[in-house]
């Protein structure tokens, strides 16, 4: 069953820019979808529409289950941006606790769940550390743990590793694949890297700019030898 479904969705901004034209997509359980294309092809716009951060100008967009009720969407969707956007004054633990804290979960009650999330990204030993003490790759891991701490069914990632050096990026790609395989949530991953899209995803949505649109979708049935 589809977690989120876009039917002929377009987005035109107030200044007249047609950022996305007629996009249709079904994201199912345990999908790993990448949006692949050059700058300006509407990848971020499509992701922001799916996140509910902006509304379609036309067409339909529907979430299934709890996410269709606005208040619960925050728990059903995790979001990772290119910038880790951690709170510099808070320890790693408290950064990861944040989404639970915002939905009323105490620090004590959250502790085992936060621990699990940190373990998932290999940062168990860094719970009491401040973000400034971490490398770029580790900050990104904290950001992933924070996005997964509510156990969302869908993780949205907007060029998450683009600012990292290549070795760190390769390591994070491998670890993200392992986490996805083990925990069976779905991922929509925005990238302009052909390498990343082929290596990571089982469905590649290829997009082009002016106006932003989908050119084709490639399904990878035989998994590329990976991990
Ligand atoms: P990508 O993520 O593929 O680089 P975007 O979705 O960011 O593409 O942008 C698609 C197009 O829409 C671009 O031409 C961009 O400049 C334009 N755009 C994005 N956001 C806005 C906005 N808030 N207002 C006007 N135009 C926008
Ligand atoms: P990305 O790094 O994903 O390509 P951008 O740097 O293009 O994103 O855009 C960053 C932010 O600025 C986004 O929130 C986007 O909506 C907004 N934006 C992008 N292009 C325009 C534009 N032409 N007019 C207004 N806002 C824009």
TrEMBL record:
Whether Transit peptide counts among this entry's keywords is: no
Report the PANTHER family cross-referenced here: ALIPHATIC SULFONATES IMPORT ATP-BINDING PROTEIN SSUB 2 (PTHR42788:SF19), TAURINE IMPORT ATP-BINDING PROTEIN-RELATED (PTHR42788)
Please give one Gene Ontology molecular function term for this protein: ATP binding
Keyword Nucleotide-binding tagged: yes
In Swiss-Prot or TrEMBL terms, this protein is called: ABC transporter ATP-binding protein
Which InterPro entries does the protein's record reference?
A: AAA+_ATPase, ABC_transporter-like_ATP-bd, ABC_transporter-like_CS, ABC_transporter_ATP-bind, P-loop_NTPase
What family name appears in the similarity comment?
Belongs to the ABC transporter superfamily.
Domain ABC transporter intervals: 4-227
Which keywords does UniProt give here?
Answer: ATP-binding, Cell membrane, Membrane, Nucleotide-binding, Transport
Q: Which PROSITE patterns match?
A: ABC_TRANSPORTER_1, ABC_TRANSPORTER_2
